Amino acid sequence: MRALWGLLALAWAQVAFYVEPVRYFTPEGEPYMELFISVDASSVRYVPRGGQYQGQVDFTLLLKNALEEAVYADKFRFELPAVPDTTSPLRERLYVDIRRLRLPAGTYIIEVEGTDPNQLPRPQKVKALLSFEMPAPTRGFRYSDLLYVHKLQSSEAAYERHGLRLEPWVSNGLLIDPDTLRIYGEVYAIDSLTQEPYYLRLRVLDAQRAIELPELTVARRPSRPKPFEAFVFTLPARKLPSGVYLSQIDLCRNDGEVLASWYRRFTIISTTEPMVEATEAEYDTQYGFPEKKLDELLGGMTYLATPTEKSFMRALQSFSEKKKFFVAFWKKRQGSDIDFKEFLKRFEYAQQHFKSSMRPGWKTDRGRVFIQYGPPNDMQFFYNEPDKYPYQIWTYN
Predict the structure, then answer these.
(1) What CATH architecture is 1-135?
(2) Which end of the chain has fewer beta carbons closer than 10 Å to its terminal beta carbon, N or C?
(3) Start-end ranges of CATH 2.60.40.3880 in the chain?
(4) What is the CATH number of domain 140-273?
């Protein structure tokens, strides 16, 4: 099962919300979707109401099939819980709307528009757009999407599945300063895949460096095959620095053979990462680039930066700040696969070979890929196909 995720405009000055479809199966093999829409209460303007304060968000939801035909539509007002005052910690959390939809197999597009009716100086619409695929009915082995969960067995949880009370973490996998992340999923008709004992395993991979983090691997006890299993894995996310990761579930035979795997991305943003000491003198001695050249290099470094580093980069203003950040950035990467020397080699190659009349080499698609991954293992060129622009295919092992 595949899903293509996208958000169009969740600006912090406007209402911030997230949309996640999670696909499950009935015991008979019929697929259905539970659609989660979460609202970041801190992005909503609370107004006096009945002696307390309350926020609201007006939503318009439209679901279309591959033929652009509307198959589901709704308009509703999402009322956030009332709080005694606007500084209440209850405003520092996500609130979730959940609805269940049964859809035929196929590709769908979800459009969601959200508006804070109390926003000043005037309400503005924020739009989210994503596409996903609904699988066909099947009685064979299958699995659900993975749902990230903030708390388990929480008294505040309004979502329950198979006896588990869950507080979903609906943020498109974006986690800021997480302590513990729980991963919920379901597997069906395991007995149609194997008749031998099996176990489920969670592996965490660093998506930017394409490496596994074995210290975070967790496995459940082996059991006999059965028609259904709901599982929860607990991940100590506080151990992870800012970056992009994959949570991968493996279904394995008792001898370790992997029979099936599926995964989901998540992004950690840590605002408490230790700073690396850096000085202007170090920059002047080791690098010495003029500010114009430094700006270009910083642009290329965004392809390698963590989400937290990108936030810092957007705030850099003076030449002094840029110098110190540059030194700290490469100090943190000493001994890694891409140190400054390797980055500079890729950057200069991109500048020389991939530039166009419109933009420098590091800003092109080929330049970005080359800086991130280096030279491809194989390149194919297609320059003379009718009715197509010339294109290349780069392959990495």
Answers:
(1) Sandwich (2.60)
(2) C
(3) 1-135
(4) 2.60.40.2550
| Per-residue model confidence (pLDDT) at position 5 | 29
Statement: residue 384 has pLDDT above 80: no
* 219: confidence class by pLDDT, cuts 50, 70, 90: very high
pLDDT for residue 131 is more than 80? yes
Question: Exposed, middle or buried, 259 (CB in 10 Å: 0-12/13-18/19+)?
Answer: middle
Q: What angle do CA 156, 161, 163 make, to 5 degrees?
A: 80
Rounded to an integer, what distance in angstroms lies between the CA atom of residue 348 and that of residue 371?
Answer: 9
Confidence of residue 268 (pLDDT cuts 50, 70, 90): confident
Residue 234, CA distances (Å) to 49, 138, 146, 200, 201 in order: 40, 30, 13, 13, 11
- At residue 273, the pLDDT reads 65
Average pLDDT over residues 98-103: 96
pTM: 0.71
Kindly give, in sequence order, each residue whose CB lies less than 8 Å from that of residue 6, ignoring residues fewer than 6 positions away. Answer: 128, 129, 130, 131
Structure tokens at 280: 């202007």
